[in-house]
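dude i think i finally got it to work??
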Amino acid sequence: TITDTIVSCETFQPRTGADSFGEREMAGQEDVNRYLREVIAEAEALRIPLGSIKPEVRINSRAKKRFGCCRTEKTFAGQQYEIELSQKVLACKEKKIKEILAHEILHSCGSCQNHGKKWKTYANAMNRRYGYEIRTTTTDEAMGLPMQEARRREEYKYFLRCQGCGTVLSRKRESRLTRHPECYRCAKCGGKLKII
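look at this
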């Protein structure tokens, strides 16, 4: 590919058992790819003009805040879209997974990279026809994810305090900010930051 850019937002775990989702059976890569084919066929049946979409869904084990993403890959032959799902979505029911896939494939339509009027028109058409609840945003609870996953999203590992105004910043992952706070300043007052 020439470039890889994110158009929008939002590796595989064992199918059952000792994971953060309890004993619920999880969808596998083959299931998700089949759901993608079905959702594409549903959109095409409504004459929604989809772009060229790769046949395999990428599963992202690091994405915690978004459920899915539609990425554009520009190639010499033109443009192709890759749909990505957060691994946590695999614990959802089939209909919820398909709603996320439908949300993301709609971003492949011309002028639908955001959640504008055209995107909403296509989403509403699929909602009416197939009983989906495609929205611009959703929550773990609405997706039927267990509460421990929602709570896990709230865990922070790093805290920094502004030496000027006392504002506390929290971060979930190590980053340049947490390794070198001396290189950064508080957005509110310009004070120095310190790990606490």
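The radius of gyration is 20 Å.
im so relieved honestly
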